[in-house]
Design brief:
By secondary structure, the protein is an alpha+beta fold. The protein folds into two domains: 154 residues, NADH Oxidase, CATH 3.40.109.10; 39 residues, putative fmn-dependent nitroreductase like fold, CATH 2.20.180. The chain is 31% helix and 20% strand. The protein has a four-stranded antiparallel sheet, sandwiched between helices. A three-stranded mixed sheet has the order 5-7-6, with no helix packed on it. Helix 1 crosses helix 4 and helix 2 crosses helix 4. It is globular and about 55 Å long. It binds flavin mononucleotide. Flavin mononucleotide binds next to strand 3.
Length: 200
C-alpha cells in the first residue's frame, strides 16, 4: 500500500500554494472557515501556551469594512488593490491575548501556514496580510483591549493563478501584460548548506 498518498497531498498543497489576491465571489461556508481555524488550533505552540484566537468574518458588510483596512501587494506599481468583483469573501483575523509571551509571532507563523495549506488543499486561495490598519480593525471587530490584532488572512476561491519564477536579481513579484502574477523564489541549491558552510 502506498503510505505516502496523504503526505503527497499535503506536499502538493505546499508546493502549489501561492498568495492569491483576486477571488471569485462564491461564498465560503462557515463549516470550511471553522475547519481552517481548527487546523490553526492544532499548530505547534511555544510552551503550548496557545495565545492565539481567531475572528472569522464572513458577513458582506463587515468584509467590506475590513477590506478598507488592508494594504495589498506593496511591490506592484502603480498601486494595486482587488476590484470590487474580485475581493476576498471572508477573513480570519489572528488576535493574540498575551503578547508578553515573546514567542507568539512564531506561533502566528505556524498557525498561519496551517490555515493557508488547509485552504490550498480544498482549492481556496489565501493572502496573509500584515500591512493592515490595526486601530480600525480593532474598532470594526470590537476587540477588547487585552487582545492585540496581529494579522489578517484574506480568503476566497481563486480568480488568479500566480506563477513561480526562478529568482534572478530582484525579489519583487510582478504582473505581466495579461495581469498574471509572477513570483520569484530562490533556487534550492542557493539555500542549502550541505554539512555546513563549506568552500565551493
Ligand atoms: C508576514 C507576511 C506578511 C505579509 N503581508 C502582506 C500584505 O500586507 N499584503 C499583501 O498583499 N501580501 C502580504 N504578504 C504576502 C507576500 O507578499 C507573499 O507571501 C510573497 O510575495 C510570496 O508569494 P507567495 O506567498 O505566493 O509565495 C505577506 C506575507 C507574509 C509572510
Amino acid at each position: 500500500m502506498q503510505k505516502s498518498s496523504v503526505t503527497n497531498h499535503v506536499h502538493n498543497a505546499i508546493l502549489s500554494r501561492r498568495t492569491i489576491r483576486r477571488f471569485t465571489q462564491k461564498q465560503l461556508s462557515l463549516e470550511i472557515l471553522k475547519k481552517l481555524v481548527n487546523a490553526a488550533r492544532l499548530a505547534p505552540s511555544a510552551a503550548n501556551l496557545q495565545p492565539l484566537e481567531y475572528v472569522i468574518v464572513n458577513e458582506k458588510n463587515v468584509c467590506s469594512q475590513i477590506f478598507e483596512t488592508l494594504g495589498w501587494a506593496a511591490y506592484l506599481t502603480p498601486r494595486w488593490t482587488p476590484s470590487v468583483e474580485e475581493r476576498p469573501v471572508a477573513y480570519i483575523i489572528i488576535v493574540v491575548k498575551d503578547i508578553t509571551n515573546k514567542y507568539y509571532p512564531r506561533d502566528v507563523g505556524f498557525a498561519t501556514e496551517n490555515i493557508l495549506i488547509a485552504a490550498e488543499e480544498v482549492d481556496i486561495g489565501s493572502c496573509i496580510l500584515y500591512n493592515i490598519n490595526r486601530a480600525t480593525v480593532r474598532e470594526i471587530i470590537n476587540a477588547p483591549k487585552e487582545y492585540q490584532i496581529d494579522s489578517i488572512i484574506a480568503l476566497g476561491y481563486k480568480a488568479e493563478h500566480p506563477i513561480v519564477e526562478e529568482l534572478a536579481g530582484s525579489v519583487k513579484y510582478w504582473r505581466d501584460e495579461q495581469g498574471v502574477l509572477h513570483v520569484p523564489k530562490r533556487k534550492l541549491d542557493d539555500i542549502i548548506h550541505l554539512n555546513g558552510f563549506l568552500e565551493r
